[in-house]
Each structure stands twice: as C-alpha cells, then as structure tokens.
Amino acid sequence: MKRLTLRYAFFILGVAINSFGVAFITKSALGTSQISSVPYVLSLRFSGLSFGMCTFLFNMLFILGQVVLLKREFRPVQFLQIAVNVLFSSLIDVSMAALGFFQPETLLVRLISLVVGCVILAVGISIEVAPDALVVPGEGIVRAISQVSRKRFGTIKVYFDVTLIVIAVVLSLVFFGELNGIGVGTVVSALTVGKFVNIIDRHFPLLDYIRSLKEQPELKVDTNDVQATEG
C-alpha cells in the first residue's frame, strides 16, 4: 500500500510540474505547448473561459474519445483521468496567476523562458510517466488511437500533435485573422520536449527510484519455517 501511495503521489507531482511548465512556456509570449494550443486559442477568444477551464473541457473530449474508441476495453480505473484533468486544469490557472508578474519583453528573455518552460515540462512528464500509475487524457487518447489503428504510439503521437497545431492555427485565423497564441514557441516545444525527456530519463536518479516502486518486493522466506514444514 505504501508503494502504491508513493506511485500516485509522484504521478500527481508530475502533473503539477506539467501544469507549471505549460504556464511558463505560455508566458514566454511565443506560443504555448502543442497539447495546450487549442485550449489556449479558445481562452483568448472567449474571455469568460480561463485557460484552465478550456483545457478541462478539451481534455474531457479526449476521455470521451477513449471510451468511444476502446468500448469494453476501456478500464473503469481510467475514469480517474477526470480527477487528473481537474487537477491539471486547475493548476494551469494557478500557475498562470502565480506567474502574473512575469512579463518578458525582449526576444532574448522570451527565448530563455521558452527553453526553461520546455525543460520544466519535460521534468514533469518524466516524473508523471515513471510510476506507471495513470495517464493524462492527452496521452490516453493517443494510446487509444494507437491500439485501435494498430499503429506505433510514437507515430500516432506525431500525427496527433501536428493535428492539434493545425486546428489551433485555423481557429486563430478564423477568430483573429492572424496567429494569436500560436508561434515559434509551439514548434520549439513540439521539437524539444521529447529530447529533454530522454536526457532527464538518463540522468535523473530519482526516476529510477520511482520506477522501482511498481516492482513487486521479493518475498522473504523463513528457512526455519521451511525446515519445520519439511520435518
């Protein structure tokens, strides 16, 4: 039970870091991450909906998509993605508010904040994935499409991210007549976060400990009991 509790605790920590990373990238004013691109554009268009609220609604579509695609193969435990969605979306708004003071003006500072945000997001993803507890809705829908189509997860992930960016670009052009909320930061995030995750996975010792939590501890056998039984 302790190991299971720790796995979910680290998963929640990873989700929290993810939300801060997304907010940090967004505050660079060069565009947001690809997975958040559509919700961010929608939040800019509909002032009554926050970035976090749009993220929540969009992720609920991902969860519904998994149910439709997987049908009986959708495990009930995956409905916990709704709770994860509430946490992630809420923390995006909290992180955006906490970073309200941060308004980078020069291009250099924006680029630096973009890279820092990508690194933070990569750390969050690494910690979130390591305990193998749950999946966030964005990853869950990609897994569902991969399972149904029998295509590699990585291949579907690329197509999925590109599709989100295209949708965000179209919405931005329709709503504003120009790119708003989408920019070089979105492309940089799409190209670099995965590479940062690979680096962190190799050089962050905490991840080895987190992964070990999902391994079953070896049962200790009392040799005296064995001898007594055999006797």
Walk me through this protein's architecture.
By secondary structure, the protein is mainly alpha-helical. 73% of the residues lie in helices and 0% in strands. The protein has helices at residues 2-27, 37-45, 51-70, 81-98, 107-129, 137-149, 153-176, 184-203, 205-212, 223-230. α2 packs across α3 (51-70), α5 (107-129) crosses α8 (184-203) and α6 (137-149) packs across α7. The longest helix is centred in the first third of the chain and has 26 residues, at 2-27. 38% of the residues are buried. The model is unreliable at 218-231 (pLDDT under 50).
End-to-end C-alpha gap: 35 Å
**Could you name the ranges where pLDDT drops below 50 across 5 or more consecutive residues?**
218-231
Q: Total number of β-strand segments?
A: 0
Percentage of residues in strands? under 5%
Helix percentage range: over 70%
> SSE order, as H and E?
HHHHHHHHHH
Number of helices: 10
Q: What is the multimeric organization of the chains shown?
A: single chain
Question: What structural class is derived from the secondary structure elements?
Answer: mainly alpha
Sheet with the most strands, sense and barrel status: none
Blueprint (SSEs and pairs):
Blueprint: H1 2-27, H2 37-45, H3 51-70, H4 81-98, H5 107-129, H6 137-149, H7 153-176, H8 184-203, H9 205-212, H10 223-230
Keywords:
231 residues, mainly alpha
Brief overview, please?
By secondary structure, the chain is an all-alpha fold. The chain is 73% helix and 0% strand.
